[in-house]
Backbone:
């Protein structure tokens, strides 16, 4: 393998629920296997960063509890060596700032793996990143920060589904898959990752909007016929947008995604729901309602249910 294309330095940019989950697994593995030629670095902030610097990051799951200590943790990319692989794990509203921070560290062989909710994340990053390889991806895992330096996994198998950069379709994923194998990270390489990305978006956007609109957990929405029907209608609108974009979603995808909600712990809240509940906190509403409405308008796809639900949410939040 070309030495320039090997992975040595890994950066987890954003060590919240998703970044902390993978960061803990990677750092823990590297801490306990000195034969691995990888160095893992974290970009975090606030009390979470201070806790990680003092005692590493802890991941609590039903399976086990592990702690990993990164090679370094900081709130400035300038403090770190140029990474070969960057996990971008911020919320959608922090994506532009994250991209601005990592751009000076990107070279032609840098691999960027975005693991955040959204169906147009690749396009948003590529708009501002001229070089490097960006691998469109999605991940199924339910996690959140339980406290400074502590991540709690509430569901999902942590599988990363990713595929080729449309700009570099001949990209060889072996350095990444070798790394994932060494870290025992669950993954699957897709020739075309977009059906997976849109399937994930169809689920999370519909349930994000429904959980906030009805003020119910994922389990409560799944158990309520009216709430479930609203989620179904939003899913239909998202599916129509995906079809208009040339993305062919799996057969019976809406039925499958609705059934999947019942597999989550009954009291699971969406990240949008948790953000809305925190007074004064920025939320991901635009990622869901805003994106669906904009793309629907651009593609001539009618989105009346999303418009009604999102407008009601925005009105409610404005009145607080």
Residues:
């Amino acid at each position: 393998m070309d030495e320039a294309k090997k992975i040595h330095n890994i950066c987890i940019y954003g060590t919240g629920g998703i970044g902390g989950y993978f960061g803990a697994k990677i750092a823990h593995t590297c801490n306990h296997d000195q034969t691995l030629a990888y160095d893992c670095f974290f970009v975090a902030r606030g009390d979470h960063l201070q806790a990680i610097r003092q005692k590493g990051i802890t991941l609590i799951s039903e399976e086990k509890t592990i702690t990993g200590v990164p090679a370094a943790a900081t709130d400035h990319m300038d403090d770190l060596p140029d990474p070969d692989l960057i996990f971008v794990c911020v919320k959608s509203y922090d994506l532009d700032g994250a991209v601005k921070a990592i751009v000076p560290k990107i070279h032609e062989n840098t691999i960027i793996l975005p693991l955040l909710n959204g169906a147009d994340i690749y396009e948003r990053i590529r708009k501002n990143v001229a070089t490097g390889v960006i691998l469109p991806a999605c991940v199924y895992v339910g996690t959140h920060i339980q406290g400074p330096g502590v991540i709690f996994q509430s569901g999902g198998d942590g599988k990363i589904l990713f595929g080729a950069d449309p700009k570099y379709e001949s990209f060889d994923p072996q350095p990444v898959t070798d790394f994932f194998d060494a870290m025992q990270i669950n993954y699957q390489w897709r020739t075309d990752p977009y059906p997976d990305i849109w399937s994930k978006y169809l689920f999370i956007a519909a349930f994000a909007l429904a959980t906030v609109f009805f003020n119910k957990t994922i389990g409560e929405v799944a158990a309520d016929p009216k709430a479930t029907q609203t989620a179904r209608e939003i899913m239909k609108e998202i599916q129509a947008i995906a079809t208009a974009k040339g993305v062919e979603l799996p057969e019976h995808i809406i039925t499958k995604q609705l059934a999947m909600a019942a597999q989550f712990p009954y009291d699971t809240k969406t990240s949008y729901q948790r953000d809305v509940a925190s007074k004064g906190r920025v939320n991901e509403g635009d990622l869901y309602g805003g994106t669906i409405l904009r793309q629907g308008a651009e593609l001539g796809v009618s989105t009346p249910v999303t418009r009604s639900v999102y407008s009601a949410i925005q009105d409610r939040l404005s009145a607080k």
Q: What stands out?
A: DSSP finds twelve helices and eleven strands in the chain. The CA atoms of residues 217 and 267 lie 5 Å apart. The chain has a mean pLDDT of 94.
